[in-house]
UniProtKB/TrEMBL annotation:
<protein>
    <submittedName>
        <fullName>TetR/AcrR family transcriptional regulator</fullName>
    </submittedName>
</protein>
<dbReference type="GO" id="GO:0003700">
    <property type="term" value="F:DNA-binding transcription factor activity"/>
</dbReference>
<keyword id="KW-0238">DNA-binding</keyword>
<keyword id="KW-0805">Transcription regulation</keyword>
<dbReference type="InterPro" id="IPR009057">
    <property type="entry name" value="Homeodomain-like_sf"/>
</dbReference>
<keyword id="KW-0804">Transcription</keyword>
<keyword id="KW-0678">Repressor</keyword>
<dbReference type="InterPro" id="IPR036271">
    <property type="entry name" value="Tet_transcr_reg_TetR-rel_C_sf"/>
</dbReference>
<dbReference type="InterPro" id="IPR001647">
    <property type="entry name" value="HTH_TetR"/>
</dbReference>
<feature type="DNA-binding region" description="H-T-H motif">
    <location>
        <begin position="34"/>
        <end position="53"/>
    </location>
</feature>
<dbReference type="Pfam" id="PF00440">
    <property type="entry name" value="TetR_N"/>
</dbReference>
<dbReference type="GO" id="GO:0000976">
    <property type="term" value="F:transcription cis-regulatory region binding"/>
</dbReference>
<dbReference type="Pfam" id="PF17932">
    <property type="entry name" value="TetR_C_24"/>
</dbReference>
<dbReference type="InterPro" id="IPR050109">
    <property type="entry name" value="HTH-type_TetR-like_transc_reg"/>
</dbReference>
<dbReference type="InterPro" id="IPR041490">
    <property type="entry name" value="KstR2_TetR_C"/>
</dbReference>
<feature type="domain" description="HTH tetR-type">
    <location>
        <begin position="11"/>
        <end position="71"/>
    </location>
</feature>
């Protein structure tokens, strides 16, 4: 963990806690990591750790909310600035893939650990996931209205998004096929599956 601490030396204490917590949650699962272990990993005593965060769920909420909010914000930007449904899909796919590659631990937590949140926090993050899915839905429906895409099907959308989301399980950002190359392949699959018949 010492290497990780050095690589996060330029972050604020809270940002460093979130970054290292995401790595621990992604590697071991949210429920398998305790506050004592998190404190040791970030080299902060219990009092100092609780000065920066209120609880472990607080950390999970911040990680999950930040990254899905960012995806929603960028998706809405694409809707406002690009009219072509095909280009919209390609931009959404490329941005999602590079985000997962650049923040793989955080997106693993965001996609896998969401149901560990409770109450209003869970509802809020689930709503944000729904907003992100709605952006893709809107693109597909717009394309259908323009005669470019086949009729919208919610199962098709779930399958396409799942293809992207689950890359956190196997993608190696520095592997032979980088995130942009994977995004290009996935975008081909997406466009082929939604093309009008």
């Amino acid at each position: 963990m010492q290497t990780s601490l050095k690589s996060h030396a330029d972050l604020s204490p809270r940002q460093r806690i979130l970054k290292i917590a995401a790595k621990l949650f992604a590697e071991r699962g949210y429920h398998a990591v305790g506050m004592t272990e998190l404190g040791e990993a970030v080299e902060l005593g219990r009092g100092t750790l609780y000065h920066h965060i209120k609880s472990k769920e607080d950390v999970l909420y911040d990680i999950s909310r930040h990254y899905i909010s960012s995806l929603v914000e960028h998706g809405n930007h694409i809707l406002k600035t690009e009219a072509d449904p095909k280009l919209r899909l390609q931009l959404l796919g490329k941005h999602l893939m590079t985000t997962i590659a650049d923040h793989q631990a955080e997106l693993t937590v965001c996609f896998r650990e969401i149901y560990s949140l409770t109450g209003e926090r869970r509802n809020e993050v689930l709503m944000l996931h729904g907003e992100y899915e709605h952006i893709w839905r809107q693109v597909l429906i717009d394309g259908e209205k323009k005669g470019i895409f086949r009729p919208y099907n919610p199962i098709r959308l779930k399958g396409l998004l799942g293809m992207f989301f689950y890359t956190y399980l196997w993608m190696k950002p520095d592997g032979a096929q980088g995130p942009e190359a994977i995004a290009d392949i996935f975008n081909e699959i997406v466009l082929a599956s939604v093309a009008g018949v």
